[in-house]
Amino acid sequence: MPVTAPLPSLEEIIDSIGVGGNRLAAIEATEGGAGNISVCLGWPVEVRRQFPMAEEIELPVPAPNLPGHTVLVTGSGRRLRDLDRLPLESIGAVVVHDDGRHGTLYTANVRQFEVLTSEWNSHLAVHDDTVARTGTNFHAVVHAQPPNLVYLSHVPAYREDEERFSRRLIRWQPETIVQLPAGIGILPFMLPSSDQLSAATVESLREHRITVWSKHGVMARSDISVTRAVDRIEYAEAGARYEYMDLMAGSQGEGLTDAESAEMVAAFGIKTKLF
Predict the structure, then answer these.
(1) Which residues contact 121 (CB under 8 A, 6 or more apart)?
(2) Between the CA atoms of 200, 202, 207 and 208, what dihedral angle is there, to the nearest 10 degrees?
(3) Cβ-contact 123, 112 below 8 angstroms
(4) Which residue segment(s) compose the domain that 194 sits in?
(5) b vs e for 230-255, b when ≥16 Cβ sit within 10 Å of the residue's Cβ?
(6) Cβ-contact 240, 149 below 8 angstroms
(7) The CATH number of the domain where 114 resides is what?
(8) Is residue 2 part of a domain?
(9) Does residue 4 belong to any structural domain of this protein?
(10) Contact indicator for 62, 182 with CB cutoff of 8 Å
(11) Which of 94, 96, 139, 182 has the fewest CB atoms within 10 Å distance of its CB?
């Protein structure tokens, strides 16, 4: 769903990236320079006041649906916990050219990164696919490394059955099925930053709003706000934390039964294939 007037200012969007980074740090979903955030804007944005330095770049993947779009994206190695106080040092703005293969990277003169995040290809590919499918003019993508979700992805019984994985995590809180009606995607381990991972992530995020990169992290998206994408990570991580606690307790917990979850789905009119 496109964002309508009044459109958020560039300053407001940059602030939201900082808020998202802080929340991910608070739930221990990012360590050191791990994790990255991007926001794709489909309306004209004047970026040169904040980001006056310009250089021409080749995009890591073709983005035929994004000419004229501006993508704010964090730099490689920048700490998510620092984004609120060091935004100009940490973020670049890419304006996609008409050919969908090149762009202009605008950065601040206080920039403290050499290149954009190593997961830039996945961010850009997901933005391009989502804009093509939905026509949205706003799209946020967040990559983080929440420990409980990542741990469960190391366990074959969880990793190899996506529906079971979703059901096991969603059963712990009634709110989770409301927030993640399509469940949680999970991909096998793939080399970080690879074209294979990028393509698989695009496919998974067509159905889901969050997907797990096994033995690595997660990627979530939202066409509403950065905060909403971060919320999806937090809901999924809360379910994984309950699941981990239950494993440590010898699987004593019951969680919501399928009947109770189905009751939730019916009562709140949730569109889901899980129950």
Answers:
(1) 60, 61, 193, 195, 198
(2) 90
(3) no
(4) 10-268
(5) bbbbbbbbbbbbbbbebeeeeeeeeb
(6) yes
(7) 3.40.225.10
(8) no
(9) no
(10) no
(11) 182
